[in-house]
Amino acid sequence: xxxxxxxxxxxxxxxxxxxxxxxxxxxxxxxxxxxxxxxxxxxxxxxxxxxxxxxxxxxxxxxxxxxxxxxxxxxxxxxxxxxxxxxxxxxxxxxxxxxxxxxxxxxxxxxxxxxxxxxxxxxxxxxxxxxxxxxxxxxxxxxxxxxxxxxxxxxxxxxxxxxxxxxxxxxxxxxxxxxxxxxxxxxxxxxxxxxxxxxxxxxxxxxxxxxxxxxxxxxxxxxxxxxxxxxxxxxxxxxxxxxxxxxxxxxxxxxxxxxxxxxxxxxxxxxxxxxxxxxxxxxxxxxxxxxxxxxxxxxxxxxxxxxxxxxxxxxxxxxxxxxxxxxxxxxxxxxxxxxxxxxxxxxxxxxxxxxxxxxxxxxxxxxxxxxxxxxxxxxxxxxxxxxxxxxxxxxxxxxxxxxxxxxxxxxxxxxxxxxxxxxxxxxxxxxxxxxxxxxxxxxxxxxxxxxxxxxxxxxxxxxxxxxxxxxxxxxxxxxxxxxxxxxxxxxxxxxxxxxxxxxxxxxxx
Length: 509
Description:
The protein has helices spanning 7-20, 25-28, 53-68, 73-89, 91-102, 106-126, 165-177, 190-206, 221-229, 242-254, 277-289, 309-321, 341-356, 391-394, 410-418, 433-440, and strands at 29-35, 42-46, 134-135, 142-150, 153-157, 181-184, 214-216, 233-239, 258-262, 267-271, 299-305, 360-363, 367-368, 378-379, 382-385, 401-407, 422-423, 425-429, 449-452, 464-465, 468-469, 476-477, 486-494. By secondary structure, it is an alpha/beta fold. Helix 10 links the parallel strand 8 (233-239) and strand 9. Helix 1 packs antiparallel against helix 5 (91-102), helix 4 (73-89) packs across helix 8 (190-206) and helix 5 (91-102) runs antiparallel to helix 8.
């Protein structure tokens, strides 16, 4: 039997936790209510900035950039190292705020904070590896090389579902690359944002770095739009829906800025006839129902071979029936609430459309705990069996709704995987090495993340994160994603004492 905390209990817990992270709650008090999805009730009332304040924030960030860009990268790494240490110290408190404001179960919230610690570790190492190339010159006595330099002010617009980690992916890397960050977080997660900023502010103070390297702007869409449009923002990193990206991308391009877009996903797993179904069921259930289906990498489609689709569907339905749904702060809960009413109504509308298209609702749907928390929206994770990939299946529904489709030929399964506008994450469960290699190869999945024998979610920070098509094409976190935060210069150095021209051009005077 789950219990839902009262408004006073949850609000007191949230504010006390934020104070432990260094947030001056009283200085930010008053203004706009934020609601917790745990009980659907206001948890804090905080002051918002307006769009006019963005100019001031970017100007301060620009001043910080002019000093920070001259600091050697390994010394910049010292700040990020201290930030990571402080994040580890505040791991439980930050996780509590993530659970309260985003509705994540405790283990997933702690995992999000661990991602922040991990990206700091990665970025510290990166601070000594911002490598350029040296290329052979066609001219004797010349050296040709590339160098990488700090880019400028980075604007970050983040979403509610990863209220801390996505900001840290950008911030840790941006700081070692020499860039300050101005952050416009989701309106749904203000205390988490203030707490993250307070922890970084402590690291900045302890390492004597410029104070304005990190700024957080609580506010509405007008603040985000002002950040998008500001000519002083060299790189705008935005996480959200495809519709949001369709508005942001052209606006940033119109002022010749850079954008890094992490947008929608409609992620599928192909389950072949040779798959280990025990492994597949575990991977699918976490990827499809974890975070109440509110990850951009959530699995939304299963494309299963006709020889296993019936058994797989039965086993998934059995697992769904056993999923504990309830208060994410309670030990043992695996599925927390949806963020709001609109998310729940979107899920129910998709189920109605899918069944109208000939699909069969196998399990789930509807609300749980409505009597305990009438203002919160706990949805029962749902599975709908479909004979074909209809329009509703090709759309992203940001909720725990999984479609199961059959296939006969493996290349048909690949075509189904790719036949959606989004291209973020994908996976294949198979024991056939040829199928695995085909799926990961140039004729296989067209997604930015392509996995074998694991689900679609749960990426590690060491690899670049992002996708293709309507997912936006951006890459964050590991690998060479750091290049987005720097500018490249090609240098030709003449030490010959002569002046030969390239391509044999003769311009003798």
